[in-house]
Every structure is written in C-alpha cells, then in structure tokens.
Amino acid sequence: MARHAEGTAADLELSAVLHALGDPVRLALVRDMAEHGESQCSPEGLQVPRSTLSNHWRILREAGITRTRRVGKARMMSLRRDDLEARFPGLLSVVLAGRDR
Amino acid sequence: MARHAEGTAADLELSAVLHALGDPVRLALVRDMAEHGESQCSPEGLQVPRSTLSNHWRILREAGITRTRRVGKARMMSLRRDDLEARFPGLLSVVLAGRDR
Hints:
- Two copies of one chain form a homodimer.
- Chain A has helices at residues 3-6, 14-21, 24-36, 50-62, 81-87, 91-97, and strands at 38-39, 66-71, 74-79.
- The longest helix of chain A has 13 residues, at 24-36.
- Residues 1-5 of chain A have low confidence and may be disordered.
- Chain A is 51% helix and 14% strand.
- With 101 residues, the first copy, chain A, is of the alpha+beta class.
- The interface between A and B is medium-sized, with 27 and 27 residues.
- Chains A, B: Residues 16-93 form the HTH arsR-type domain.
- Chains A, B: This is Helix-turn-helix transcriptional regulator.
C-alpha cells in the first residue's frame, strides 16, 4: 500500500479532516465503513452518481481518513481509525455518535 | 437576539457544523472565542482581510456555532457552547484539543 501517499498520523490536519467530514454524503460513507469495516466505491443505498462518489472518496483519502485496498480491479476503502485516534483522540467517536436528522 | 434565525440546538446539523469548523481561519476564530469568551469581528493577530472574515463569521453563525451580540455599532461573537454540547456531546472539546501544526 502507498503508505507514503497517505502520510502518517502526524500529517493529518484537523481542518482538512473536519472539512472532509463536513458533507452528508461523506459522513454516510464514513458511517458505512465504521459499520462494515470496508466499503466499496458505491455502497448500496446511496443515490449518488459514481463520478460524484469518486470525488468524495478522494477528499476522504487526501484528508487521511481512509485507506484503499485493491482487490483485483475493485477498490475497498476503510477508515484509518488508529491514525485518526492517535492524532485527534475522540473525534471519530463523537462524529459517529452525532446523527443528522 | 434573533433566536429564531439561529435555530435551536436540535437544528444544528452535524455536516454543516463540521464544514464550518473545517477551515484554518474559522478554527482560529473558534479558539479565540473559546479562550476569550467573546470575539470582535477582527481578532488581533489574524492576518485576514475583513471581508473574508465577514464570510467566515457568517458560515459559523449559519451553522449554529456562534451567536452575535450587538454593542453599539460593534458586534461581539461567542460560541454557542451549551447548544453544541447538547446536540453533539464532546465535539467542541475534541476540536479544541486538536491542534493544526
């Protein structure tokens, strides 16, 4: 995996992480990963065009929130829980506990 | 104060709150209010044009993060700590504890 491209826990910037989390679709992707461990590019139940989703995944990845695992031609995304917890303790838990109505 | 325009704690939307916090200048404004209670439109030490700051204050206010108190011609902004804590317990503490490097 391209560890270098994703940076280390210390590279995660709070404002970039909050910005990445500050969107309803990206929050839904984060909740999906939190629940299922890994998520496909287009999780079931999300009515969002694939090109739009690609952009959301890019923002999550560049903020350091997700890592990507290639399985053949597919990509599986997961949360960088340990890195996020090390850099911003409690943030992910607080966000996952908060529900948009 | 225009309580109606700011909505109640239940109206705060997580994604809007995270988006509003997801900017280095707005984080600096939030930290300034957390430290000093109230903040003027242009806090000392922030090298940001006043028009840009006005936009940042608007985003914070519309997300429900701040309230505004008029003092003569001046406006003083403060954090809606209780409302934020009621709606998203722990969020503000986690954000204030996280430092951009």
